[in-house]
Amino acid sequence: MKNKLNIGCGNDIKEGFVNLDITQLPGVDVVCDIENSLLPFENETFEYIMCIDVLEHVDYPKVLKEIHRVLKPEGIVEIRVPHFTSSNNYIDPTHKRMFSFRTFDFFVNNTRYNRNYYFDFQFSELLFSKITFMNKNPLNWPFLIWVNANKTTQKIYEETLLRSIAPAYNVEVKLKK
Q: Which of 54, 56, 78, 99 has the fewest C-beta atoms under 10 angstroms from its C-beta?
């Protein structure tokens, strides 16, 4: 049995993964509407889960709970979503949510917000958090390095006019169960 899951794979079929999507496309192993159904797997099935460009389309707390359920202890979930300043939020009519680098802190034990009571599941650790920028815009080069130097610079970026000068592209995180 494959111990890696690629949620919302679309046409990005990954070798060695169970590839899951809402539509039966070539290479899709499992068809599932993750917003309206439970993931069709046993508890603690996967060591690694990819969820790339998916959570902005769904009621994501419910989906994260399901990801947590099927992830093995110490397992990792890699997530990429559009940053709230990204123009992609407004281009795709199926986008329902926007994200900050701080959004996922609400799903991790002992973070600055300490909101463990919001949800009945928690990841143990936020391993990685990054704000990405479109590389084609030369104004973004200084931000590529500075913004992700630490949580403080990420916060300064999001809370000041810098976010308007150089809009971000995505938020990328890795969470550990």
A: 78
Q: What is the pTM of this model?
A: 0.92
Instruction: State the CATH number of the domain containing residue 55.
Output: 3.40.50.150
3-state secondary structure (DSSP) of residue 165: helix
Range of the domain at 117: 4-133+170-176
SS3 at position 129: strand
pLDDT at 121 over 80: yes
Q: How confident is the model at residue 24 (pLDDT cuts 50, 70, 90)?
A: very high
Q: Residue 110 and residue 86: Cα distance in Å, rounded?
A: 29
Q: Are 152 and 61 in contact (CB under 8 A)?
A: no
* Residue 140 resides in a domain: no
